[in-house]
Design brief:
By secondary structure, this protein is mostly helical. Helix content is 71%, strand content 0%. It has one domain.
């Protein structure tokens, strides 16, 4: 079982590592940064993650969201919206290649995880428990 879980994590980690460029290193400091150079924030996985952190923090402050899970959910939805809308509108600065809608959805979700929720241990443990449950054999009665 641990071999399958390790392989799944390895298969997910390799594409994430390949997509994570290092161009932007800090989140935008204001709306002027976002609008003055959109290619910087929308042209790479790292840029989308940083833009997601900025926009999710703005939304969380605007709606006064204080609970942990709703904050994470907000970041995940913001990242999915950024990548999916950019892909559906054929904005070529959303990365440089075309990919299907489901890959845009997955890429947005992974960018949301990278922006705030991936390294949160309880959330990661729940995700891994669900994945492990898919591969665990059912007890025979």
């Amino acid at each position: 079982m641990k071999k399958y879980l390790f392989l799944l994590i390895a298969f997910l980690a390799i594409p994430i590592a390949l997509l994570a460029q290092t161009e932007p290193t800090t989140p935008p400091t204001g709306w002027g940064d976002v609008f003055s150079n959109p290619a910087l924030w929308l042209g790479s996985f790292a840029g989308v993650s940083l833009l997601t952190a900025f926009l999710a923090a703005f939304i969380n402050g605007f709606f006064k969201i204080v609970n942990k899970f709703p904050k994470q959910l907000c970041a995940w939805l913001v990242a999915i919206a950024i990548v999916s809308v950019g892909d559906l509108a054929n904005i070529k600065i959303i990365y440089t290649w075309d990919f299907p809608w489901w890959l845009a959805l997955l890429n947005g979700f992974l960018a949301g995880l990278a922006s705030n929720g991936w390294f949160d241990i309880p959330t990661l443990k729940r995700i891994l428990d669900v994945i492990e449950g898919l591969f665990k054999p059912k007890p025979i009665q």
